[in-house]
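Suppose you are handed a protein chain with no further information: no name, no annotation, nothing but its sequence. What can you learn? This example shows the usual starting point.
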Amino acid sequence: MTGTDRPEVIAYVGLGANLGNPTLTLRGALASLAGTAGVRLLRSSGLYRTAPVDASGPDYLNAVAELATSLTAPDLLSVLQSLENAAGRERPYRNAPRTLDLDLLLYGSSRIDSSRLTVPHPRMCERAFVLVPLREIAPDQVPCDMLARVQCQAIQRLDTI
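A reasonable first move is to predict its three-dimensional structure. Written in structure tokens, the prediction is:
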């Protein structure tokens, strides 16, 4: 069964970048996702600026995208990692600055815990840079109490992507 033979699932992807030209990189990643077979870009949040979490380096620009996809979660993860690699993503150490970071946050109502993929994303509930843009486009996915836990993290909405 190919990705186009499967029913669509709603998935949410976190986008971030803090090296190069993050705005152009995030716009390019959204365009690439929209042009991927088996993926439809439904909407994206605005662009947010945040300080790195558990790391150093320049501030990040972040957003969240809502997708309808007929790809399996592992296949969607492969697409995301290919886009990161095409943008020059390197992984020299944990939380290193990034040209592009794409995280599969949610994949329908699936719960996945494999050596390669964990969904829901294991740290999304700890990160304002995920929860605030996710709540912008999918308020039902971010309860108020979850958002309250990250209210001390500085985040600034800049513009639309």
